[in-house]
Amino acid sequence: MTAPHALPEPGWPTREGARDARLVQPGSLGPCSARTRTGVPAMVPWRATDEGFVTPAVLDWYGRFADGKPGVLVVEATGIRDVPSGPLLRIGHDRFLPGLRDLVRVVHARSEGETRLLIQIIDFLSIRRRPQRERFLRQFLGLREAHRVALAALAGHAAAAAGDEASVREALVSLSDDELRGVLDERELEALERGARERVTDTHLPHVAELPRVLPGLFADAAARAQDAGFDGVELHFAHAYTMASFLSRRNDRDDGYGGSREGRVRCPREVTEAVRERVGAGFTLGCRLLGDEVIEGGSRVEDAAWYSVELARAGLDFVSVSKGGKFEDAKVPRVGEAIYPYTGESGHECMPTVRIGDPGPFGRNLPLARGVRDALRAAGLATPVVGAGGIGTFAAAEQALGRGDCDFVGAARATLADPDWFLKAEQGRGTQVRRCIYTNYCEGLDQRHKEVTCQLWDRDLERNDPGRDSVQRTRDGKRRLVAPPGSASPPLPPPSARCASKGG
Ligand SMILES: Cc1cc2nc3c(=O)[nH]c(=O)nc-3n(C[C@H](O)[C@H](O)[C@H](O)COP(=O)(O)O)c2cc1C
Ligand code: SF4
After folding, report:
1. Architecture of the domain delimited by 15-124+204-323+366-498
2. How far apart are CA 183 and CA 172, in angstroms?
3. Domains of the chain: which residue ranges?
4. pLDDT average, residue stretch 338-367
């Protein structure tokens, strides 16, 4: 294991020193202007109801981020379909609107109108938990003639292979793992050892074949609901392990015009972008998050991301947010009963890098990808802003990223989870009060287990004899603080003349 990288010197500015910093200047994401170039990227906190509704805990989670008045706050990946998906937010039906409207109201109120609120909208394909071996072979496996043939070739199994379905299944159960590998095909083995997972290339499945026909409408409907609920914009989730990123992947070899070449791979995301833009009009901010590099064998690289970004910006995007990795292909084998988690392999480690990652360490690690995308957009004559993220947790690092031209907005997910007031504290010359993220991914471990996400640093005062500790709102297991500790009273922000224009038409 790599020795942990030390946290960088924070280089906190004085209040006067911060005043002229690029980070605290207004910035535009299309029609929406933000007070500063600070952003909180999407983070799933596992606080929605099992039916996907906003809960008081969701309101507290986003309200607490809003207290810190980031320029832009992106709500977690929110499902566009009207199908059960566990405690993840959903926007696939009008019944979700009242809760989403509350969410908008809370964020706008607690940020005193200073934070622009976007919602990330996502589609994902079916993925099943890793099954028990016997259950899989007796129940889930679809028997094929090829199984009988392979079984008959194994010593002692010819009679069972010629028998009824039950005898074939029992014979399969009795095989050693090595023998079974010779009987099952690659996808069946994957279903057994990792849990079945659909891919966009499974065009033999009618609902997968028709994705390019249904997704534009589903995304457009979801975006229209976001607009109706009062969000300032939407971010299309074209990143990580999910449907749209899989269309963009170099591994997408669909032969129906929606895969193969770069033009084919970008076609579905482009048609989604066009459909959403047509539905929400020019006055609503529309961006996407995509991968600067998939970090898997045969996957897309920054040249692809740069090319896609130009295409998608021309199709109507107002910004591009650049992430990295987070794929199923290289994820760790899950335990029986658990689902594969796309942040456990190398690509996952690149997505949320920790202090244990190899050189040059996690800090600003993914900015070269944002830079590659931004350079391509500028070379194409497009001013589309780019959001960079990944290990940015100091004012100096954020300022340097903007100064070098790596990005136009700085996203900080875990640093803002650790201390939702950190941007504000830095801007106000109170940087020494920041509770700094230590990038060890305790929070990500909770996400992996679908537990309420919290930060390990929030609980320090719970361990001490804090007089208010009994009244602190806690997680279901009663052990952890559910919301970041309250911030101390802060000096007022600069006068309105130095702030951004309000949202444009
Ligand atoms: C708990 C948790 C949940 C996340 N959920 C999402 C998500 O819903 N959508 C997304 O695009 N990225 C998600 N991410 C990735 C972050 O947005 C961000 O890209 C990543 O953490 C790297 O940035 P950072 O170093 O500033 O944390 C999540 C990260 C964490 C830690
Ligand atoms: S749990 Fe660890 S990695 Fe996550 S935000 Fe807190 S300090 Fe950072």
Report:
1. Alpha-Beta Barrel (3.20)
2. 9
3. 15-124+204-323+366-498, 133-193
4. 96
Ligand found nearest the CA of 391: 1
Residue 498 has pLDDT above 60, yes or no: no
Interatomic CA distance for residues 188 and 181, integer angstroms = 9
- The residue whose CA has the least distance to atom 4 of ligand 2 is 443
Q: Which amino acid is at 178?
A: D
C-alpha distances out from residue 203 to 196, 212, 249, 265, 391, Å: 16, 11, 16, 14, 38
- 7 pocket-lining for ligand 2 (C-beta < 6 Å): no
Q: Distance (Å, rounded) from C-alpha 227 to C-alpha 233?
A: 7
Please tell me whether the peptide bond between 360 and the residue prior to it is cis, using omega within 30 degrees of 0: yes
* 3-class secondary structure per residue, 197-243: ECCCCCCCCHHHHCHHHHHHHHHHHHHHHHHHHCCCEEEEEECCCCH
Amino acid at 5: H
Indicate the residue type of 483: V
Residue owning the nearest CA to atom 29 of ligand 1:
43
Distance CA 361, CA 7 (A): 10
- pLDDT category, 491, cuts 50, 70, 90? low
| 302 C-alpha to ligand 1 centroid (Å) | 19
**CA 164 to ligand 1 centroid distance, Å:** 50
Nearest Cα residue to atom 28 of ligand 1 = 43
**The pLDDT of residue 46:** 96
Gap between the Cα atoms of 112 and 29, Å rounded: 19
Using a pLDDT cut of 90, give the percent of the chain over it.
Answer: 91
